[in-house]
Amino acid sequence: MFGELQHELELHAPASEAWDLFGTLRIGQLVAEELPQLFQSVELTEGDGGVGTVLKLTFAPGVGGPSGYKEKFTKIDNENRIKETEVVEGGYLELGFSLFRVRFEVIEKGEESSIIKSTIEYELNDDNASNASLVSIQSLVTIAELAKSYLNKNKPSTQ
Question: Which residue in 83, 117, 148, 153 is the catalytic one?
């Protein structure tokens, strides 16, 4: 069984600024600092932010789904502003998923605006098909909204 969830949010920031946040480790650092209700911790366990980097995500108690997992950066396309991660240990893999991928795309809309498109793709074996109900885009929506707020607050002065 294959599934996909998507969300788009317009940002009032140039795509280059949004990519500086999403295309690096900065988004994980921001999430760890600003979303304790969602993430107990976001730890860098391997790498420097490039392809092959591994993060250990531990969700706050009470957040639905798995308690945590390790994800690996599998694609960072600076030209097209696409970053993909896949769960490589724990979490959804322990619930019968053979693939759990998160993709962030920063799409240029205009000189001072962009869209962050968040996608979850997953594959689940048929024996565990009922676990598809555990997949939610809500944490990515929250991260996109946090990024929007952060980018709006930290706009360079145009004076």
Answer: 83
CATH of the domain at 65: 3.30.530.20
Please indicate, yes or no, if residue 71 is contained in any of the structural domains: yes
Question: What's the pLDDT tens digit per position in 54-88?
Answer: 999 998 887 777 789 999 999 999 999 999 999 99
Structural domain including 12 reads 2-153
Burial label, 74 (beta-carbon count in 10 A; 0-12, 13-18, 19+): middle
148 inside domain? yes
By 3-state DSSP, what share of the chain in percent is helix, strand and coil, each rounded to 5? 30, 45, 25
Does 83 qualify as catalytic in the annotation? yes
Q: What is the pTM of this model?
A: 0.91
pLDDT digits (tens, 9 = 90+) for 19-66: 999 999 999 999 989 988 888 889 999 999 999 999 999 988 877 777
The structural domain count of the chain equals: 1
Task: Compute the distance between CA of residue 24 and CA of residue 14 in angstroms, rounded to an integer.
Answer: 16
